[in-house]
């Protein structure tokens, strides 16, 4: 019988509360948080392993359970076959890289999530302005999760060989559902589905491409169903998207970023569907770069600040 053990660990919290007009992250350092972290992972993705953490002295108004994610490899060699990632021995998840290289990827992840939050808020605002409200309210459950607080591991089990620098972890709320829906893959953006959820995310991807002034594409979108309690106490269901990848025109060093080729794949594959048409995304938002811009995210925009879009 396996006995589950955990280790006390002090995290120092790093959040990404804001994204600049250029799409760059602004990180902020917060409090230290003492936790117990499971010695073994309980799940793995294609590149990250997931550990349970229990927060000591958790505030009473926060009953959420959290998980901590870290990469176990930094080479994206499985992108063509993400659902068939090699199963790991979850009791001994490797970390054969320098903490510095790992942490840079965690910061890419956090930036990606913070950008996603900006895009989703802007998308809902855009839908509302175009008379489409059926896609739902801009609640946390309705789209990308909030920017996950990113914590730094000061004494983690996996860092014995890297004494000089702690490992950064991605801390996220734990969602009870084991069900995962995949909406797109790294280089595969078409969807055979016609339900509201799939069409919403399909249109969202189109919106993001244009809202970023054709600078980036969200790929590899997957989500899990959640139930949330609204301010009035009503329960509502939604989908939390997690572990997205981005392809950017300036390729950068993020894992899974296929750069201009990844963007071109999206442009070639995306055929507007019902919701895109309802929102007039096909005509308002030319798929091919060039031409005049109407909204956006990049330098020179005199309109909304993406860090605040949707907050009003
Ligand atoms: Zn479309």
UniProtKB/TrEMBL annotation:
<dbReference type="InterPro" id="IPR004166">
    <property type="entry name" value="a-kinase_dom"/>
</dbReference>
<keyword id="KW-0723">Serine/threonine-protein kinase</keyword>
<dbReference type="GO" id="GO:0005524">
    <property type="term" value="F:ATP binding"/>
</dbReference>
<keyword id="KW-0067">ATP-binding</keyword>
<keyword id="KW-0547">Nucleotide-binding</keyword>
<dbReference type="InterPro" id="IPR051852">
    <property type="entry name" value="Alpha-type_PK"/>
</dbReference>
<feature type="domain" description="Alpha-type protein kinase">
    <location>
        <begin position="1"/>
        <end position="284"/>
    </location>
</feature>
<dbReference type="GO" id="GO:0004674">
    <property type="term" value="F:protein serine/threonine kinase activity"/>
</dbReference>
<keyword id="KW-0418">Kinase</keyword>
<protein>
    <recommendedName>
        <fullName>Alpha-type protein kinase domain-containing protein</fullName>
    </recommendedName>
</protein>
<feature type="region of interest" description="Disordered">
    <location>
        <begin position="137"/>
        <end position="157"/>
    </location>
</feature>
<feature type="region of interest" description="Disordered">
    <location>
        <begin position="292"/>
        <end position="312"/>
    </location>
</feature>
<dbReference type="Pfam" id="PF02816">
    <property type="entry name" value="Alpha_kinase"/>
</dbReference>
<keyword id="KW-0808">Transferase</keyword>
<dbReference type="InterPro" id="IPR011009">
    <property type="entry name" value="Kinase-like_dom_sf"/>
</dbReference>
